[in-house]
Amino acid sequence: MNQENAGAAAQLDARARDFSVLFSSTPRGARLARLLAAEQLRSWGLPWEEAGQIVAELAANAATHGRLPGRSFRLALHAAHGTLRIEVTDTRGDRRPVCREPGVEDEGGRGLLLVAALADRWGVADDRFPRKIVWAELDFAAPEPGRSRSGAGGGQ
To the nearest whole number, what is the mean pLDDT of the chain? Predict the structure, then answer.
């Protein structure tokens, strides 16, 4: 663990923090989610680069694949006990995200691969119908031995 992450872990353990906002399910809403998440993490004194990229991917997916006209998506950040949990809730519980290898010619389809590479854990959880939550966690403390970095199959 580097000095920056050690300091962040100490701050997270000192006090739990929460942030939650609704955004329009549009490209503009996804962009605003990323910008506000990065600013919130900076104000908490936490590293924001990886988390900002995860928020960008999950928010873009919510605005693109989880979109229903007139419905918003929710971004929530929960920081406590050395872990940052990012949750994006949309209203398309019938559309579960799948992490797949895109073809060489595919222009998209790499977002969840990036989330899986950056996050310590990630997954999908059911919420009240018709919603789902796509979540990712980043540890700012030394990882426990044997913890998996992927969690696409289960929710917490």
Answer: 83
The values of phi and psi at residue 118, to 5°, are -85, -35
Of 27, 97, 80, 85, the C-alpha closest to 56 is 27
Q: Are strands 121-126 and 132-139 parallel, antiparallel or unpaired?
A: antiparallel
Kindly report the backbone phi and psi dihedral angles of residue 11, in degrees, each rounded to the nearest multiple of 5, phi listed first: -65, -40
Strand partners, 73: 23
Per-residue pLDDT for 116 more than 80?
yes
40 contacts 111 by C-beta, under 8 angstroms = no
| Spatial distance between the Cα atoms of 65 and 25, rounded to a whole number of angstroms | 10
Against a cut of 0.85, is the pTM above it? no
